[in-house]
């Protein structure tokens, strides 16, 4: 236990303020820029001299931003769903079954997370091109599910490890099949792990720029990240105020989702952290 001396309290408050500034100042400056008129974008003022909501109004009325938002929601929801389902089955297999090659396969899945995504893009782009999946949402969904699976699988394995095997043995004695055990007994108990895996997959898909910019090129199929950049920042124009406003507006769905589901998310991530 730390002794709460004057020096400790001073260090605590200085560290807290420094971390708070590091985390929240960029968000404040983004909001500050969005509330400034275009002529004051690069003025060093912490409070806008001429407050305006025109950037937010333009974003809301811009049909292309709403189209990017809809596309991102579709890709992210589908990706997170498949990430959750596949991770759940894989995690259950690693946790509750013992078979030859199990540990090696688990390490192999974890090792796949170590490769830089930018390097894997070359291989994935060639593969998608050969299968005719370029400029199709399926290419993005397959890529996002692939990158989310290692963390999702290990998260679900850690959660299933916490569930006692006696539950499964009791269900078997009562005559329940494996599918019944997984879907009707284990799955309801693993809701926090499933939610945290789904949120991870959703946020991964939502924030991606590199793959979204490369694999899907049609303007009507663009997702948010490449859509915002190509819409507001180009060789002949730059509208930082509008881009900041758009970034705030499109962050609302993810923020709301995390606020409502943070209890499950934290519970799912911390499962397995303490054993005893």
TrEMBL record:
One of its GO terms (biological process) is transmembrane transport. It is a multi-pass membrane protein. Its main location: membrane. It is found in: Cell membrane. Pfam families: BPD_transp_1. InterPro entries: BP-dep_ABC_trans_perm, MetI-like, MetI-like_sf. One of its GO terms (cellular component) is plasma membrane. The chain crosses the membrane at residues 12-31, 73-92, 104-125, 137-160, 181-203, 240-261. Residues 69-261 form the ABC transmembrane type-1 domain. The keyword Transport applies. The keyword Nucleotide-binding does not apply. Keywords: Cell membrane, Membrane, Transmembrane, Transmembrane helix, Transport. Belongs to the binding-protein-dependent transport system permease family. PANTHER family: INNER MEMBRANE ABC TRANSPORTER PERMEASE PROTEIN YCJP, MALTOSE TRANSPORT SYSTEM PERMEASE-RELATED. This is Carbohydrate ABC transporter permease. It comes from Paenibacillus roseopurpureus. The lineage of its organism: Bacteria, Bacillati, Bacillota, Bacilli, Bacillales.
């Amino acid at each position: 236990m730390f002794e709460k001396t004057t020096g400790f309290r001073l260090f605590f408050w200085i560290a807290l303020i420094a971390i708070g500034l590091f985390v929240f100042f960029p968000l404040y400056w983004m909001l500050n820029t969005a509330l400034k008129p275009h002529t004051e974008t690069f003025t060093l003022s912490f409070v806008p001299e001429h407050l305006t909501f025109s950037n937010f109004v333009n974003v809301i009325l811009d049909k292309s931003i709403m189209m990017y938002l809809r596309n991102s929601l579709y890709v992210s929801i589908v990706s997170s769903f498949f990430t959750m389902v596949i991770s759940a089955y894989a995690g259950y297999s690693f946790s509750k079954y013992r078979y030859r090659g199990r540990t090696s396969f688990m390490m192999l899945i974890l090792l796949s997370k170590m490769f830089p995504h930018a390097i894997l893009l070359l291989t994935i782009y060639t593969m998608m091109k050969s299968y005719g999946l370029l400029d199709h949402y399926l290419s993005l969904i397959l890529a996002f599910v692939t990158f989310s699976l290692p963390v999702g699988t290990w998260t679900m394995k850690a959660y299933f490890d916490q569930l006692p095997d006696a539950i499964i043995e009791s269900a078997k004695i009562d005559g329940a099949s494996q599918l019944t055990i997984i879907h009707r007994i284990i799955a309801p108990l693993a809701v926090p792990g499933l939610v945290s895996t789904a949120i991870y997959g959703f946020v991964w898909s939502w924030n991606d720029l590199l793959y979204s910019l490369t694999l899907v090129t049609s303007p009507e199929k663009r997702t948010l990240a490449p859509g915002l950049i190509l819409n507001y920042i180009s060789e002949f124009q730059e509208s930082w105020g509008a881009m900041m406003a758009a970034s705030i507006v499109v962050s609302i769905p993810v923020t709301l989702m995390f606020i409502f589901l943070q209890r499950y998310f934290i519970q799912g991530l911390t499962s397995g952290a303490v054993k005893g």
